[in-house]
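Methods: example folding runs. The two proteins below were folded one after another, and each record is reproduced exactly as written to the output file, sequence line first and structure-token line second.
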Amino acid sequence: MTERKARIAAVDPVWSRICDEARVAVQDEPLLGGLIHSGLLHHASLERALAYRFSLKLASGEMSEQILREFADEAYEDEPDLGQAARADLVAVQDRDPACHRYLQPILFFKGYQALQAYRIGHWLWRKGRQDMAYFVQMRTSEAFGVDIHPAARIGRGVMFDHAHSIVIGETAVVGDNVSMLHSVTLGGTGKQEQDRHPKIGNGVLIGAGAKVLGNIRVGDNSRIAAGSVVLEDVPCCKTVAGVPARIVGEAGCEHPATEMDQLLRK
């Protein structure tokens, strides 16, 4: 057992740490033993655990756990980048959210992380031409987690949805790597046109709670959008915007706003 754990730790340190945390959690709270064993320790990899969690949370009278599990496993096997993105997202949450103290928390308890991984499977389905099933995943993700992401949207790695409730991301939206957004954020359109109509969010951007970014506009790398703002125009790199409609109010305040999570506006 010790040798096996050492091999896993060398190949996949994130999964090894999750399993170590899970064993401690079972000792600390035996009543959660069944949940933790079935959700984590029973599985040979993070991908298998995420596929199980996906099927458990999104199953309904319309779609069984077995069917959901089958295409989730297929997605992770077909596209290894899904598992790497899941690890990057997990590290992002643990690094940026002061309420997260262990890797196992987002997998078991944080709906923002779980919704993002469900979107990633839906996006895989979309790119495979299985659009109706992708729409089903979008619907169930919205119903289960309160997060509505069109499966055609493109989202990078290392993304954190903090609290996540009522996040909406439209069909032609693009979100870069290492982005942090809080609850009630909308990346939406400004009309009913069918062409490219949603925002393009650069790398390292921090989007505050309740912010609305509307239209086919660009938010530059390492910028900040203050809580409650309505952004209707392009935002340059490394700037802070605030207000309705949003205006530039200063610099971003630090080199990596999405990582620092500093939302205060300073003169």
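Second run, written to the same file directly after the first:
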Amino acid sequence: MPIMRAAFASRFDDADPLAALTVGEQPEPSLPDEGWVTLRVTASSLNHHDLWSLRGVGLRAEQLPMILGCDAVGIDPDGNEMVVYPVIATPGDPRGVSILSEHFPGTLAERVAVPRSNLLPLPAGLTALDAACLPTAWLTAWRMLTTKGRIDEAEAVLVQGAGGGVATAAIALATAMGKRVYATSRDAAKRERVAALGATAVEPGARLPERVDVVIETVGAATFDHSLKSAAVGARIVVCGATAGHEPKVNLRRIFAMQLEILGTSMGTPADLADLLAFCAERNVRPVVDSVVPFSRVADAFARLHSSEVFGKVVIDHTQ
């Protein structure tokens, strides 16, 4: 059986997810049916989903070893450079879909198998390393702002917890759309970087100069009350994560008195990804990259993501 090098979950460790990561040989991907193709991966990026997988969230022991990774750019069998849309129809999953590395092997490998319909051409002007940042975190931020947040009706946006991939994507995208953006972070150095992206950086819980029309909420319980208090009448609070608690106390009187909408979302559609790719290429918007790490040192990339210092995306260069 042909083998390849990959980064995969070999066990689960909630306390120390890095200890559950193995980098080594795995079988090359098989094709579930004739509609699938194999790509040679040239670039990928990490998401906190990868760390959650190592903790055992969303995976069962009988699925191990599972190759990690959701995002990738690669070369298809015809020699074309393609961006992978990572959401796969999965009838056995209660959601009806899954993302790569949940039921199907992920992108942190030399090769990955995906449905041909999940491939989008890499636009001119975007590098593989840039585009590899977009299909998960940036796609989620795009849908939060556009489809769910209706940002075309908004003037001001609050992004909670600047530093992570979704939050930094939301800051960059909303700024490129010409909106006034406020972003919170406990870290003074990260607040400086937020300001460099064109946003107004504030400490968590700080009173804003104005109420906002859209709140991008990735943190959860630690920031949710501030999100409610910062929302203007009719504002949309869009939630995609809960890294600091999933059961916040919610003041229902504020919700109905201010006519607020609390909306959940995750990922986006292939059309959303196509729109995002086109927007970034045409507006010269580039992902916020924390670091680029050779695939030969992918374990170092996981350690960087796991640190509290990361700001933006950790990208893997599979050509090194």
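Comment on the second run: The chain has nine helices and 18 strands.
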